[in-house]
Write a structure and sequence with these properties.
There is one protein chain. By secondary structure, this protein is α/β, with parallel strands linked by helices. The chain folds into 2 domains: 144 residues, no CATH class; 155 residues, 3-Layer(aba) Sandwich (Collagenase (Catalytic Domain)), CATH 3.40.390. The protein is 16% helix and 25% strand. The protein has 7 helices and 15 strands. The strands form 3 sheets. Strands 6-12-11-10-9-7 form a 6-stranded mixed β-sheet. The radius of gyration is 21 Å and the shape is globular. The protein starts with 27 loop residues before the first helix and ends with a strand. The structure holds zinc ion. Zinc ion binds next to helix 5.
Amino acid sequence: MSAVLLAGCSSAGSSASGSTIARADAPPGIRLVLEHRPAPLTETIQVFVCAVPFPTSDPLYGDLQLRLDLDPTTIAAQMQRHVSLYYRALSNGAYRPDFVAGETLTMTTEETHDQCVEDAVDASSPEAAAVLVVANAENLATGPGGWGRPGTPCAATFCSAASTRRAVYVGASDFHPDNGAVPLLDLIEHEIGHTLDLPHSGDTSATYDSVLDVMSNSAAPRDVQPERKNAQDTIAVNRVALGWIPDDDVAVAGPAGGTYMLSPSAGPTGRRVVFVPLGDLMFLTVEYLAGTGFDAFLPSGGIAVHRIDESPTVCEMPVAGACVGIDRQQLTVGSTPPHRDLLATAGASWTVEGWRITLVRAATASMDTVQVEVVPTDG
Ligand SMILES: [Zn+2]
């Protein structure tokens, strides 16, 4: 259990004194996120290649004829060198996946990629917590480039991929030689997020059109930085769920709200997010994205707001009356799609769900914290 947040506590020397409520008194939807299973410090992800025959009856590939010469050992080394470092940076060192080579599995003409993934899971080593399966054929452009699943919940310290069926599948497109020596990485980084039980963010359409989160439009940074391989950063609610922001650095706003100091949500220390209860299973998150590091493609840093909804109506299979983990709905609100422009000018505000969120003081060269007022509009 975390320390109790003291009402009215504030950063030393600041005038910020937003009201907070203790974790034990927070609505159940907020507690579900605070109590989510943290990501492990380390784990092994085993890499398999599915060799797709031509022709194949799997409609995912249609009549596409390209077959790449992919090798699990080479891919595991690429992932170790780039995706592992991405997640280490994203988590400030709290999540360090290791990639090891599995084998190449040859599909029969009648087999589908889904069966190949199951074969890979069955063939995975007892030490592997998840598998990454790459087909040597491109998926048809009309469908998604891949998927990721957390598998069945793991109640122990470690569960093998063979027991949970935790897996990522991607087609060959990101490994096309036209991409250079390093494949495109953002889709795999996105799908690994799903294996950690992270949901999409953005809107409710299939496009997930926010540029602010690896779990939304992960390719968005490439629109600004054509040489980009990695995805952007992620949003505070995901960091809290995975234990990358400790509970003590989360403020749960009281009914009157107030003014809060916020450190960058991607940073290693300080208060990094305000949760604003909207009901038992719904709340807003208010965070400061600094627009640096993986987010350097943004025009500027600023405040981002998301509406998190775990109501049983937002997913197909609620657990104990709530949509948790990968089934949470996370809408990017306040800003206009694709959410490139954040609340960045002192005095600017958004009104969302009966709350007014105002940037009181922007970050300066000498201080990277911001001051934000979060108050009910009828208060
Ligand atoms: Zn996804």
